[in-house]
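Sequence dictates fold. Below is an illustrative record:

_____
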Amino acid sequence: MTAPPPADRAAPDRLTTRAFVDEHIVPYAEEYDRAGTLPDELLDRIAGAGLWAPFLPASLGGADTDMVTLGAIHEEVGRGCSSVRSLLTVHTMVSWALRRWGSPEQLDRWGRELATGRTLGAFCLSEPGTGSDTDSLTTTATPRDGGWVLSGVKKWTTNGQRADLFLVFARGPVSTVALLVPRDTPGVRVTPIEDMLGTRASMLAEISFSEVALGPDALLGPSGFASGMLLTGTLDLGRYSVAAGSVGIIQRCVDACAAYTSRRTVAGSLLRDLPLIRAKLSDMVTDLRAARLLCAEAGRLKDEGDPATIMATWVAKYFASTAAARHAAEAVQVHGANGCGTRYPVARLYRDAKVMEIIEGSNEIQRITIAGEAYQEWVR
């Protein structure tokens, strides 16, 4: 990666991120999708713009960005390319976990590296056959010689092909533990996962750990603690980012459809003048604004330290991802046969939006969780 950005650079916000995305991401998103990877030059540019972990404190090289603004940043990046936003998501999860639960020594070793993007993080939870079910983890962390020995396989690791630091969740002697594992540790093997339906440039990988020896400083948080607040908090940040990115997909659908229907004619009339087209656009705009407000509420509750943010994020992610999938399908329909090719972005948006309904908690799980909250409120 490049040298860290200048200390006097302005903190990123929605407007600066929008300009960055329009210049460096939107024109190349289809190319990234076809290539199935993101160029190092773009990752360096993201570092230069201060977008990797701006919520980290200035003392670590961050910008003390609040969570509402972070959501807006991830929305804008998601508008440009969901694969790029996916990298921000997992990097955010690792960086947040380090800030919240890292020891002074761990913060000194990794904090500035993560804030400036010189080190990129990836989140290793899902496993072959069991997904992200923490009760069924087969990856093990065994205490040995004051440290740990890590063995197992993780799958669907976003940015696993490129990340420098893995946050790995494994079954410990008593319960789940979280370990910081540098990529270059002996026994770590990375196998690319290619030809996915959506977010094709998110550089997925399967990560194998074969008797990986780690020191005591690898443990993040107290032993036996990861299955509680650490894991809950990191997954909550992941859902928040996916929710915001889904809002970005809806915005891109609105933009694409408004532009296309303002040029395309049928029987001498612009598509935009047809009542059914206008109805589709009005539904997109309405859901866009509703999803954006739900994300803003979740972010505000995070900034206030209100535990209600967990459920607010569940609701935001469920609504936004469902709406993104629905409107991306409509966007393809509006474009007709043109929507099935690569000249217009809607085919990519359609594929990426489907992924949003699955990652960081499938929509089926979200519906069960949200309903459970409703019954708890009713019982009171």
User: Anything to note?
Assistant: The domain at 14-120 is CATH 1.10.540.10 (Butyryl-Coa Dehydrogenase, subunit A; domain 1). DSSP finds eleven helices and nine strands in the chain. The mean pLDDT is 94. Strands lie at 121-124, 140-144, 147-157, 165-171, 176-182, 188-192, 205-214, 265-266, 269-270.
